[in-house]
Specification:
CATH topology of the largest domain: Glutaredoxin
CATH class of the largest domain: Alpha Beta
Distance between the termini: 32 Å
Strand order of the largest sheet: 7-9-8-10-11
Helix content: 25-40%
CATH superfamily of the largest domain: Glutaredoxin
Number of strands: 11
Largest sheet: 5 strands, mixed
Radius of gyration: 22 Å
Strand content: 15-25%
Shape: elongated
Structural class: alpha+beta
Order of helices and strands: HHHEEEEEEHEEHEHHHEEH
Number of domains: 2
């Protein structure tokens, strides 16, 4: 989302959008109008909110709000203080959701813990201190299969060689654990190994992953940061509960 450009264009579009009546079809009309005015912005959906005259706009992986005239955009959280609900949070989760089933897990380091029944996908950088903390937290997590995409974006000149060395080590999972635990880069390499590091970087960029670590659940939800093992476990269980209820 190019916010500065979008805001300027929205102000210019005020007269066009103000002609759209606030009826049951207003959100559809506004969606078509905004898509025509902002062809470079991926506008997915416009929906009326519980606040009269305010519409929710989903743009790529961003959620914003627009008034009925189309002149004013604002970004932030819409809260229902009576029910104590964050109305924006669920929509952000939907907008940033990943098709976890389509990810190329063959390009990730796989570690099975316990019965491996739950699935956790991690984008992690060799030089990321929070990634090291996450690895310590994951040590106490049970009954999960962890797929780690090595994603060297913080300091590529340093982390990309480490990422390649880990992937091409005889035992990539052990090499990754040792690197994050004590900083030791493996020296032994598998002959003819072609690390998927550039593919991982391109994949992360397509998914809108801008920081590490980033966690992805089986149902495609994203969660940034080094959460505790307990919190991750609850988060993974929520994905499993959702799949059972469907």
């Amino acid at each position: 989302m190019k916010l500065a450009v979008s805001l300027a264009a929205a102000c210019a579009a005020g007269q066009v959008l103000s002609q759209t009546p606030a009826s049951a079809g207003a959100d559809a009309n506004m969606l078509l109008t905004l898509k025509r005015l902002y062809p470079a912005t991926q506008i997915k959906q416009i929906t009326a909110t519980p606040v009269p005259g305010i519409f929710e706009v989903v743009m790529s992986q961003n959620v914003a709000y627009i008034d009925a005239s189309g002149r004013y955009f604002f970004v932030g959280r819409l809260l229902d203080m009576q029910t104590q609900q964050d109305l924006t949070a669920a929509r952000v989760d939907q907008a940033t959701q990943v098709d976890a089933g389509s990810l190329p897990l063959g390009d990730a380091i796989k570690v099975v813990k316990g019965n491996g029944s739950r699935k956790l996908i991690v984008f992690s950088d060799p030089d990321c201190p929070h990634c090291r903390q996450l690895e310590r937290n994951l040590a106490s997590l049970t009954d999960v299969t962890v797929y780690t995409f090595i994603y060297p974006i913080l300091n590529p000149s340093s982390s990309k060689p480490k990422a390649a060395a880990v992937w091409c080590a005889p035992d990539p999972a052990s090499a990754w654990a040792n690197l994050l635990a004590n900083g030791s880069t493996p020296s032994s390499q598998r002959a003819g190994c072609q690390p998927p590091i550039e593919r991982n970087v391109a994949l992360g960029e397509r998914l809108g992953i801008t920081g590490t670590p980033t966690l992805i659940s089986a149902d495609g939800r994203k969660s940034p940061g080094a959460a505790s093992a307990e919190r991750i476990s609850q988060w993974l269980d929520a994905a499993r509960s959702a799949s059972v209820s469907q």
